[in-house]
Amino acid sequence: MGWAIALxxxxxxxxxxxxxxxxxxxxxxxxHCLHVGxxxxxxxxxxxxxxxxxxxxxxxxPNFNAGRGSVLTTSxxxxxxxxxxxxxxxxxxxxxxxxxxxxxxxxxxxVMEKTPHxxxxxxxAEAFAREQGVALMDSSxxxxxxxxxxxxxxxxxxxxxxxxxxxxxxDEKKQTLTADGDSQIGTxxxxxxxxxxxxxxxxxxxxxxxKMVGRIGDTPIIGAGTYANNLCAVSATGKGEAIIRGTIAxxxxxxxxxxxxSLEEAAAYVVEAAPAGTVGLVAVSATGEVTxxxxxxxxxxxxxxxxxxxxxxxxxxxxx
Length: 320
What we know:
Order of helices and strands: EHHEEHEHHEEEEHHHEEEE
Structural class: alpha+beta
């Protein structure tokens, strides 16, 4: 048994031709965040602190679909959501529809620790954030010029967009409106286990490009995009509606709990059973296993373990 950590920056239709100026900053961010998480685990920080720390770093990076880089609703606004969960106690906290909170993941943890509830949303979550004194910024802080352009493209194509999926027009003549596969940047998440088998997970997102105002995805829903118990910790990414329908994160844990599958077996089964192109996840087990399966073209991801494994990838292993 030893510590292990895995993180993701979103899954979707990521073409092999994605240009270096789009790919390299994200790979560098994953490398940096992995280092931050590994050092925190080595310093014997609790996994709950580790996953919050790593996801905060990812939220602060404008090239990922969370925090400062969150994509825009059909009204051109930002509505962020996040969730955090402790495996041993199953304590958890979630928020949705926040528009001014710099780090939604930290607000989710405050919901877990400072309220009798699990989930706060919209005006109530914003009021709680002000009450707790968390860092707030005007909504303009979260809106990047790249995401304004992505919303414009999505509206022209009359569709919402999954992480990295290229928008298509109705007649599909404009098959490469964003030929670099950068039409939407990726949901972020982190899972960790320490040398004592303590587990935690955290996930944060801005949702879909051109999503309806008020839409809530899988990220803040316990058992869908985020779940941890005494066996494993899971953070999912992909098409939220498919992940909710499939209770993806909980199913991984359930297969381990009720069928005795290994982490790798359980995660592979769940991802393969999901509709093609809709799901990716990172997961760790109480015994220090790690797995990062996906059924989309690619998933920005990274992991490390105490026994020396270290990996950063985008596409399937034969393509990286």
